[in-house]
Amino acid sequence: MAVNTPELEKPLPVPGFRVGTASCGVKSPVLKGKRQDLTLIVGEVPCHAAGVFTKNRFRAACVRQAEATLATDAEHVRAIIANAGNANAGLGEMESVWAGQLIEAGAAAAAVSTTAVLSASTGVIGTPFPIERIQASVHEAADSLDANGWEAAANAIRTTDTFAKWSSAEVSIDGQTYTLTGIAKGSGMIHPNMATMLGFVATDAPIAANDLQAMLRRVADRSFNCISVDGDTSTNDTLYLLASGLGLGHAPLSDTSLFEQALTELCIELAQLIVRDGEGVTKFVTIEVTGAASEADARTIGRAVAVSPLVKTAFAGSDANWGRILSAVGNSGVAIDTNAITLLADDVLMFRDGNLHPDYRDADGMAVFARPEFSITLDVGMGDASATVWTGDLTHEYITINAEYRT
Amino acid sequence: MAVNTPELEKPLPVPGFRVGTASCGVKSPVLKGKRQDLTLIVGEVPCHAAGVFTKNRFRAACVRQAEATLATDAEHVRAIIANAGNANAGLGEMESVWAGQLIEAGAAAAAVSTTAVLSASTGVIGTPFPIERIQASVHEAADSLDANGWEAAANAIRTTDTFAKWSSAEVSIDGQTYTLTGIAKGSGMIHPNMATMLGFVATDAPIAANDLQAMLRRVADRSFNCISVDGDTSTNDTLYLLASGLGLGHAPLSDTSLFEQALTELCIELAQLIVRDGEGVTKFVTIEVTGAASEADARTIGRAVAVSPLVKTAFAGSDANWGRILSAVGNSGVAIDTNAITLLADDVLMFRDGNLHPDYRDADGMAVFARPEFSITLDVGMGDASATVWTGDLTHEYITINAEYRT
Q: In terms of CA atoms, which chain A residue is nearest residue B192?
């Protein structure tokens, strides 16, 4: 059901990192040996690290513990351990115990201190976390550590994703070429509870930890925070960035803007892959908001359009329903002048000056909305700021997956 | 598809009011004579009036003009004129011209001043408003004015509603009995754009215009603003309240609390009828939030649960998916302590103290969620405020109506 999935090139190894996976049977012991469900990413040197997490008030223990680690030890992180199959969430006091044991397992396997390990868990909520199955098999992940382990890791973090998601880039700064490789899994929400959006990016670029955290927040706002499958965010959503460059002896970047641009593009690509693989999605729609008073306003407007069930069903029905789009803009809460809005679907001008454009023909709009991939451009005429949001349609398949999965 | 529709008793006439309808063929001339689509509510005396309107930034001309009238002339309103079949919205400058002509038609038919008329329009957006068809037939509404015209009016304001919605009540205050009668139409969103929620309530209770406006806002917050079919609000949503009592010679109420209680109950009943008739709705779910720090917080939490596609598909699938409900609470933006939340489905205790309750059995939750009508109770343990929100499920039928209607 995925939309225009690109053929992904092999992920690039990143100097300073090795990656391994294990099959623990986290979700069920019968899956032991059948699929990989544990990922270990190890930095050979102390890495600078940053993390961006779910804004949901229900935050799993792995998120809370990672925030604490990043507050004190963001300059010498050595490993990420991540499991699929169980989110270790909604479990009361045992949640923190199990999350701590997961970190201990990762620390032992990577032979580093527990304060140098970040964890992430994804899968069902409210089911006791089978830490003993992970403890029994984590050595497989240590044994398989390899600079070329990224594709295996992209597969091991999957839950309901229909394909593995990764992206790599190289960026040249001051005559030195640095590598970025990221893997991600989708935020499809599935029985019996919700899954989780995870993204892990590694680089050998040399960046101060403080800069890294501020940068990752900006990048997340322009990538993972600009996608919407169904408007819900999970208890465990996590994006980590690890940078090994300083530990490898590179001099700190004096100007991080080129790196930030490369990181943004990489995260946008990962985020778009998640939308393309969204539950029941048959269309990939780019919503571009321009002329806003601020970037935050632009993003708020774009997200309001992206999450509206009426807009998303119109996408599904190939119905060029400009009224629903404008109504969603009007409902965004952002102050707008409805007479200043210009609306295009791809290059078809639909609405301007408070009215349908006189040259607009419904058939032209319908032709755009029938495409598997198209853009909605909204200029709100209030300023110079812009934002882009990516979304899919709302289909019967989404209802089937989410209403009928439990049998 | 409506859920547990109650058999409605006949609406009561309200002293001081007569109601008439006409068939204008607003949506299409071929419907002329086939269905009523124009409603005229006439006060025989100057009425105190109040209005609550959509918060969508796209506001149709009828809404903008009514706000202006209520700002200056709320103490002597004489009529409401309302049409179905065309929302007179998204039409640029002509919108105000046509809205003004609709008011002129109502004023002429009721033989009152244009400054004493409020209007409302519902139907398709972006289609030129056929004012001439209304002008040609508005006399039918004047000719049919009758104290018992409320049921006909409840039918004439329908668009996609599957049944007409009204409610009446009597309230005794200081030895005098007053009547309230209200009619409403649903906010189902339909091709080619969105329809509109309309509610008109008349009473012979004697209440100062200022008190009336403040009261109607409070009442709307506890009734129409507490329902959600799909989270979208339209360009034309309107609730009017007309009170004839002072013009009929009653002394002003010294204490309006009994009246406000009756008005709240009546508006809740109308609002619930709209949910029961929501597009594709097969379940009627009451979400009760208690223990919040403020009523606004409680309502925000309730609405967050009520609009979540994951929660609504779980309702559709009879899936007692407590994780999705808690995640929606966590996404509401309200500060909560996740360990302080108690969650019940009807009388089944599901979640408490940060964990599933040890006595909870999935089968018990599933039995509740399988009912056509049930309650979700969320105590958030932060204070004493509460709110109740009513919602439906999200089904294939909703997708079919909204994605596939255009053929």
A: A321
